[in-house]
Amino acid sequence: MDPETMYSRLDSMFTDRRTAAEIENYLRDVLKEAESAGSGELVIAACNELGGLARARGDFKEAEALHMKVLRLLEEAGQKGNLNYATALINCGDVYASADENERALEIFLEAEAMLKALGQDGMYPMAALCNNISKVYICLGQNEKAEKALEKALEIIEALPGMWQEKATTYVNAAEAAAAAGKLKKAAETFAGAIALFREHGVRDQHYAAALAGEARLRFMEGAAAEAAGGFNEAAEIIKEIYGENSIYRLLKENAEKAEKGGGLHEGT
């Protein structure tokens, strides 16, 4: 098997709405086969996907181990400093960001940013995606002005590239979160609405759409619209369930829906 075959099979599994457990079992089988065959390229591909699944379900230790393995294999293959290595660094940073190790995440993201610049990627999509990730970490660190600057750069890149509506919508979500963190609630509401409109226009229900719904729901709750807030949290929870099952994010969203209905305080970060 080669990575292309693996990704084709994964696409079919996602299209068929196979469960996260089924997808993970498939990838573990691929990894075992790749390691037995000594296929480093396939090991890297399988580890990347398994690392993403581990991060999504909150198993940050396993996710870290998988992505660090990818970095080690790339370095052994003489690929340190290339685009594959920069992408692997970003994946590691995502794990630390998800685990609230924001200082470590920022350190890795900035290393990846310097690498992308050296590779001539400053105006390309990988840089825009990284700027989105950097903005989230800055928000968590309370550095809202830096977060907004990172997002401005991301949007500038994305708007100059064709066919990037989904990336634009994702950046809107992050920009709305940055505005909310800075207390710019009107701007946040307008930007969340713009993101939601794009996702609905294209019929996409992914984790970024769920984040937009949850962010808008939080604003509705702050305005005193408890029923609308609960509805938004519930819809976001169902999307997460469709993708990842009843993971920790799903549970927090459902708890926020219940708290909104009862008038209690909400969990942070959802």
General description of the model:
With 270 residues, this protein is mostly helical. The chain has 13 helices and no strands. Helix 10 runs antiparallel to helix 11 (207-222). It has a domain at 1-122: Serine Threonine Protein Phosphatase 5, Tetratricopeptide repeat (Alpha Horseshoe), CATH 1.25.40.10.
Chain-averaged pLDDT: 94
The secondary-structure class comes to: mainly alpha
Q: Report the CATH topology name of the domain at 1-122.
A: Serine Threonine Protein Phosphatase 5, Tetratricopeptide repeat
Distance between the termini: 39 Å
What name goes with the CATH superfamily of the domain at 1-122?
Tetratricopeptide repeat domain
Q: Per CATH, which architecture of the domain at 1-122? A: Alpha Horseshoe
Q: Which spans have pLDDT < 50 for at least 5 consecutive residues? A: none
Number of helices: 13
What is the C-alpha radius of gyration, as a whole number of Å? 19 Å
Helix content: over 70%
Largest sheet: none
Shape label: globular
Give the DSSP E fraction (strand runs of 2 or more residues). under 5%
Pfam family, one: TPR_12
Protein name: Tetratricopeptide repeat protein
Keywords: Repeat, TPR repeat
Organism: Candidatus Allocopromorpha excrementigallinarum
